[in-house]
Amino acid sequence: MSVLFPDTRPEAEAVLIDLLRQAPGWRKLHMVGQLNAAVQSLALSGLRQRYPQATSQELRRRLAELLLGSELALKAYGPLPDVDIFVRKDRPFDRAQFERRSEMVVATQPERKAYIASAEDTILAKLEWYRLGNEVSERQWRDVLGMLKVQAGRLDFAYLHLWAERLNILDLLERALAQAGEERAA
Fold first, then answer.
1. Contact 128, 163 (CB under 8 A)
2. Of the residues 6, 99, 137, 138, which has the maximum number of CB atoms within 10 A of its CB?
3. Residue 176: which of 155, 147, 156, 151 has the closest Cα?
4. Model confidence pLDDT, tens digit, residues 47-84
């Protein structure tokens, strides 16, 4: 007699198979659901170990990628979050940006902190990247528009205009402000 489970005695396996044959359809579906939940729980546990600073939303997105594959997870849930890192140069703008940074808690248990550039400085840096990339990066442009919309009432428009003019990106800032519906006088 062939066995499906090498760690199970043939007699016990025969009883198990007989019980599965007799089980109603709803019971079999319930058992499959429980197995799926167990697999997801184990996968999430592994993802938490691999990405200890990840938010629950990021962990769910990474789990979707494991379960659905990259292409379907991207279509269903969008891209994984990422972080832009700006290397400080020794220009007046970079020094001002460095002075305006804020320390923020980016993870808890254990607590981890990082310095984060202000929204204004991030907008300016992204506009500069957009210009340097021949104004073709939809990602940079979308990021700028998103920040302008989300941060609308909290932005220092005088600072934005000052540095945009100095960085020769004032035309881009004005176009982004208009497109985001945030036209402001300099």
1. no
2. 137
3. 147
4. 888 877 777 888 888 888 888 887 887 788 777 766 66
DSSP 4: S
What are the structure tokens assigned to 98, written together?
Answer: 């460095």
Whole-angstrom distance, CA of residue 124 vs CA of residue 109: 33
Amino acid code (one letter) for 114: A
Pair 63, 40: CB distance under 8 Å? yes
Structure tokens at 172: 């881009």
pTM: 0.54
More confident residue, 79 or 11: 11
Residue 164 has what pLDDT? 94
Angle, helix 157-166 to helix 92-100, in steps of 10 degrees: 160
Average pLDDT score over the chain: 83
Q: Which of 79, 97, 76, 101 is nearest to 88 (CA)?
A: 97
